[in-house]
Amino acid sequence: MAGLNVSLSFFFIVVAVCEAARRLSKRSLPAPVYGNLARELIGAFQLGACCLELRMLVVIGPWGGGYGPDVILTLLFLLFLVHGLTWDGASANPITSLREFLTAEASAPVAAVRAAAHLAGTYAGDALTRLYWSWELTDFHLIQNLMGRECSSALQTAVAWGVLVEATCAFFYHLTLLCFQHSRPLYRAPAVALIVTLLAYTAGPFTSAFFNPALASAVTFHCSGNTLLEYVQVYWLGPAAGKGGSRGLPGPAPGAGGREVGSAQSRAPPRANGSRWVSGRRPPPETCLGQVRDGRKKSTSPLRLAPVSHPPAPAPGIPPPRPWLLGLLPRSGSRSVSSSRAGSFGGGGSEGSALDREVQATLTA
């Protein structure tokens, strides 16, 4: 039991130091440097150090300390629960950086910096843990030092089955992240820790369920039993295929599926988004009236009535036009009023001239 207490203390110290470094770098470094380099480096270091110590308990604990799978799985769940609450959005996985580059979410230099930070952080955690083992604080560490870097391969099945197992684990892991990407860390961290524990319990006897190329490279690539090409196929190509399959599925809309009860988003009124509505509520009736189809397109703006034009009022002192004069008004393409009257009455008599002057005065007004 003393060896387990020492391991728990090691976990606590690593998480505390990484959290302090994370907060210090967040305050002192620019946002792009922190988000693309420091945060990923610290997260990968925390993951590598804790997982290597946990793997030592997996290998030596059952026959050296009598620890069953229940103890190991409980520690695994607690570790990933703490990781999810303290990582501050870091992925600590090179496959995520590769996917962001292929989908144009990140440029090539940014993706390369993140992947390098993942590998550097994981190998730094591996070096620190082996230095900690050299102190031989427990019998477990003494046995581990006697073993040195001699270890057996984590791949305990055929290469093809190993690729399938790692791809399946990566698929369900990243699918869980996709489903809970809009949830609070308080809800997302237990779900991710639970799926990691289930995958480790199911696929652990076959490939150790790494589904993280950086972690597998630091932990098992130097072990004998398989070639480097076989390790790359299982622990790099397998997670990459599983990650690609999970991204091919449609994700939930923001707030859907993972919406928190009582959140501001769930209480917000429906907002128009093109011709659709984000909320499931019925749109207001004034908007429904505006959605009129005229045969060519569908308008989503409220219905507006055109203003009614009225004829101008006559000027003071001038009588309004008489009804029988409306037929005498000129039309487009017709002759003038005087010529039409002259043609009608056979000349320009005094009676016609007076009528013409009255019509001209009315038109001028």
TrEMBL record:
A molecular-function term among this protein's GO annotations: channel activity
Residue stretches of biased makeup (Gly residues): 246-260
Compartments reported by the entry: Membrane
Membrane topology: Multi-pass membrane protein
Gene Ontology CC: cytoplasm; membrane
SUPFAM superfamilies (UniProt xref): Aquaporin-like
Low complexity compositional bias, start-end: 324-343
Native species: Ornithorhynchus anatinus (Duckbill platypus)
Family that this chain belongs to: Belongs to the MIP/aquaporin (TC 1.A.8) family. AQP11/AQP12 subfamily.
Pro residues bias (residue ranges): 309-323
Cleaved signal peptide residues: 1-20
Protein name, entry field: Aquaporin
Keywords: Membrane, Repeat, Signal, Transmembrane, Transmembrane helix, Transport
